[in-house]
Amino acid sequence: MNNHLDALIKQVEAKLREPLASNIDKWKNHLSDLINQIAEVKLDSAAVVNGFHVVDESLDPTDWTSARCVAHTMLDASLDFVQTVRERPVWQPIPDRVRSTLERESLPQHGQSMSDVCDQILVNILPYSTGNVHPRFWAWVHGAGTIGGVIGEMMAATMNSNAGFLSHSAVLVERTVLGWMGQMFGFPADTVGGIIVSGTSMATLICMAVAHNRALANVRETGLVGGPRLVAYASSETHMCVVKALELIGVGSAALRLVPVDEQFRMNIDELKKTIREDRNNGLTPFCIVGNAGTVSTGAFDDLGQLASIARCEGVWFHVDGAFGSLIVLDPKRRSLATGLEQADSVAFDFHKWLHCSYDAGCALVRDRTELHATFSTRRHYLAATQRGCAGENPWFCELGPELSRSFRALKVWFTLKEHGLLKLGQKIADNCEQAQYLGTLLAQYSSFIRVVTPISLNVVNFRLEPDDLLHQMDSPEIIDVFNNEIAADMQESGIALPSTACIRERLYIRVAITNHRSTLTDFDIFVKAILDRCRDRLAKIKE
To answer: Which residues, renumbered to this chain, carry the PTM N6-(pyridoxal phosphate)lysine (predicted)?
Structure first.
């Protein structure tokens, strides 16, 4: 065995002394194969101690100096990626070569060097991201991230803490962040509670489960069998995560009453009252009203104050879907849009949207933390609490949500809030809203063939190209829908800017949702010019 090992080591030494071959990949693969063979021999020859066959080696680097060099290279690559973002397209499709490499890669049986794996990331993965780091990514409501977030994520990964339970700094940081959020939204400091989760979808599921548990006190033990038929209420503009949450807690999507909206896309209060009254007369049990703080399509706000009042009168849970719009409380000029949010029983929102924390990080915040505990707390002997030692800090976060294993998401949020402060973060939110108004003004210059949805109340601009040449040739709203959809796709594939589309009053519009701290007014000038250019190009093709 030792002779074989010595022979392999000599082959490696000889390989390292060779001049670099013209086919560097072949040379590296041969060297990697030799190293893997050495590892196998060492595994086979591991010492047997008291009958146990153990290799006394960890997964840590054997060469810490080289590992540091690789790590510094990757950190520099991360910084370069952000610093030079304007030199790249917003988004680019994944080439067939790269797609084939990623999709057809076999399950690794033997390891590669850390530097080789990092090289693969830099070549095949990093260049083909979503694009939301770029200043002209406005397609979906994504935050742009920060360098501080990169550092926070790195340190959280270094600590590798499970934030679900036990006594350690991750638990204290998360509690601190949640306290700050309660203060920011005006919830009572002595009762507010919450949990940091992957995003608003999970936060909504948690909040709906809490509302459900309050409505049916024994539902955790007995389930839904034989209980009352529950119904919930939300506007027709409500995000699909509310529907999914009701499905997952067993209430079902049919139990959600989608109330019509007014001309400003806000829930029609009279229709809500009428629907509740009809449901009660039909023997149904209302248990939750969902208010929108910034709808996904237009950024509209329901009248949260009125919804809170109705919820109190009806004795039902009042939840606010505030994925991004709830953060408008940080903009003094527009915070009145969210008046009434402070009266909610719960709010679900994201840190990774308008606060620009790295994906993923959202929050379920509740007025009364005992409601969370009553919905999710359960203990077994292997999770026994103690007054001393590592198992302190009760209640644990695993008692406030569905997960026992939880990453230290709170650190990047804490870092972002500490680094920038609410005033600066609020200013960037205000900037995005002003940029939306600016874009609306630019588009209004072409009102003869561009229809803009008004009012632009927040950070979302929807517009529709209706050129006369196309209307004369094809007098069909559906054809105009297709035309605008193609323009949006043209823009995405051009790499100049990334809008998306939205269906508003049954017609397709190009949608620009601005949650990007890197955007400038010049970016919107570039965008409008590119839209006009692509409109002309498409019309020219139609005429051919």
So the answer is: 353
Range with lowest mean pLDDT among 91-105, 472-486, 499-513? 472-486
State whether 52 and 68 are in the same domain: no
Instruction: Indicate whether 366 and 249 sit together in one domain.
Output: yes
Indicate the pLDDT class of residue 301, thresholds 50, 70 and 90.
Answer: very high
The average confidence (pLDDT) of the chain is 93
Helix or strand (DSSP H, E) at 461 = strand 460-465
The three state secondary structure string of 250-314 is CCCHHHEEEECECCCCCECHHHHHHHHHHHHHCCCEEEEEEEEECCCCCCCECCHHHHHHHHHHH
Is residue 360 reached through a cis peptide bond, with omega within 30 degrees of 0 on the bond before it? yes
CATH number at residue 217: 3.40.640.10
Domain that holds residue 500: 445-543
Contact status, residue 303 vs residue 269, Cβ threshold 8 Å:
yes
In this predicted structure, what is the pLDDT of residue 127? 97
What distance in Å separates the CA atoms of residue 41 and residue 339, rounded to the nearest whole number?
69
Question: Cα separation of 198 and 240, whole Å?
Answer: 16
Residue 512: pLDDT over 90: yes
Q: For residues 88 and 122, what is the distance between their CA atoms, to the nearest angstrom?
A: 15
Are residues 331 and 470 both part of a single domain? no
Cα–Cα distance measured from residue 185 to residue 365, given in angstroms and rounded to the nearest whole number: 10
Q: Are residues 487 and 531 in the same domain?
A: yes
**Residue 25 — very low, low, confident or very high, per pLDDT cuts 50/70/90?**
confident
Number of domains, the chain:
4
The tokens for 334 are 């527009």
Helical H segments across 315-409, by residue range: 369-376
The tens digit of pLDDT for each residue in 392-423 reads: 888 999 999 999 999 999 999 999 999 999 99
Answer whether 538's CB lies under 8 Å from 493's CB.
no
